[in-house]
Amino acid sequence: MKPGYHYFEVGEQEIATGLYLTSVGWGGVRAGESYPAPGHPEDYDFSWSRGRVLTDTALVFIGTGRGEFETRLEKTDWLPGQAVLLPPGLWHRYRPWRDTGWTESWLTLSGELTGRLWQQWEGSLPIRPLAVPEPAAFGRDFERFIATVIRESGEKPGHARPQSLTWVAAGLDLAGRFIDAHLESTPLPVSDDGVDQALRFIRNHSHRPLTVQQMAAAVGMTRRTLERRFAQSVGRTPREELEWLRVQRARKLLVETRRPIKEIAFLCGFREPRGLIRACRRWLGAAPGRLRSAPAGGE
């Protein structure tokens, strides 16, 4: 497959759909060559020294070769057959090792719907390179998808207008295959009293307004029964569990993104920033601003 890419012009029609492609591309870097290659728009281009923050969601897959990937929280090797799904607003950087080079495929998506999806994924989907199921088949499908989009948009790399619903669906399918394999939750205690079911419900809905009565109803219990079983099995009340989960998610967003504290509060289920501030002080002993400015892990 010939290396190439497209960065799409996005207009009101695309924005109104709530989900649209913003770019696709495939390329290879030989051992010893500089990375990334020139020619990408400023919003997508980056260097190792300054890193990058995207406004889109990006899926990046490495087919061959090796490299390294870094966020403000961790640095890890990137091996062949691994992909990463990057949320908007996350500072990151990556590059191939000079003695191996690599081949990469990528797509980026944007729109209101991606923001809603990340409300569900954040805190449960690891943001680092992870193995994809059947990587050879995944890589072939990814390259076929990119080739189709480029061919139907025009033979030469450059800019083209979206948007075929077929393209968006195919891009979502690729992302979904990766997400389904790695969407995680904290291991739950094994029990037959409904507590594990309640914990799942809380963790899947912690970004939404949620009352203890709603938690109990979702698992077929009375509020009093739910609170008693939580006290016995978890050691926290359902309300405390909800707030603790929200704080953990907020801490991740504070450290890894540049989103305003007000936005993070709403994304994590707090009605107002003051609620997030109080919860961070209660559980972490520091206000959100201090957590954001705290030194992250080093090189």
Task: Provide an overview of this structure.
- The chain is an alpha+beta fold and 299 residues long.
- It folds into 2 domains: 179 residues, Sandwich (Jelly Rolls), CATH 2.60.120; 99 residues, Arc Repressor Mutant, subunit A.
- The protein is 42% helix and 20% strand.
- It contains 11 helices and 11 strands.
- A 7-stranded mixed β-sheet has the order 10-7-4-9-2-1-11.
- Helix 3 runs antiparallel to helix 4 and helix 8 packs across helix 10.
- It is elongated and about 65 Å long.
- The C terminus is likely disordered.
Average pLDDT, all residues: 84
The fold-level CATH name of the largest domain is Jelly Rolls
Straight-line distance between termini: 35 Å
Low-pLDDT segments: 155-162, 185-192, 295-299
Number of helices: 11
Order of helices and strands: EHEEEEEEEEHEHEHHHHHHHH
CATH class of the largest domain: Mainly Beta
Q: Would you tell me the structural class of the helices and strands?
A: alpha+beta
Radius of gyration: 21 Å
Spell out the key features of this protein.
299 residues; alpha+beta; Jelly Rolls; Arc Repressor Mutant, subunit A; 2 domains; seven-stranded mixed beta sheet; four-stranded antiparallel beta sheet; 11 helices; 11 strands; elongated
